[in-house]
Write the structure tokens for this entry.
Amino acid sequence: MNDRTALTASARIAAAADGSLPVLESDGPLALRRTRATGPHGPSGPYTRVTVVGAMSAPLGGDRLRLDAEVRDGARLLVDSAAATVALPGRTGAPASYEIGLTVGAGAELRWLPEQLVCATGSVLRMRTTVDLDPTARLILREEQILGRHQEEPGTLATRLSVRRAGRPLFDQELGCGPGAPAGWDGPAVLAGHRATGQLLVVDPEFADKPVGTRLLGEHAVLAPLAGPAALVTAVAPDALALRRVLDEALRVLVPF
């Protein structure tokens, strides 16, 4: 257990079409750094890249964290992280919260590709990600949750991902895992005993005319089209490495550059 007191912290990113970052503000454990765009490229060239660097252990029980990113019209932003985020218990047993707000403008693209979220024994985390997309925007969003560190019982995690496109709901999903979650979370209809789960969401206006087909990706992952120009990959795996492999392969299938 970490002995520091709970804190409230926020961070903000705004990316412009000329590759600049008019806003790059952070405090507490959410340290933002502009990094070299050596990652994926597209037809329009490299992305502006921002890496989230953990300045201290977080989220800790009782913490209130918020990260907002705005990708302005025509901009291309890649956000990743330097290491996994580890949710830890605090002194009081209070839950931690982590809110993420993403806005992607006209003709803009966001690749949201953080490292895994690890829920250590005794932690309680409520995580909410809200995305607002222009109808011409593109989004690649990856989420990975690891329940417990190596040979450790899981913490409690409640997550919700809500995506709106042109102001209308495109995707809204909740997941609860761990000892504080509703019964059945570890049963055959949910995790089936696995301790790593994740999803890859790709929204692309081109899918309106060329929707992806449903298919299995290995033994415990599925690719499916959504009711909109989007595709979702959902996967469970025995560990973080196996989960990343299947999601990386799915990304290569859905985004061939």
Summary: Residues 8-254 form one domain. The chain has one domain: 8-254.
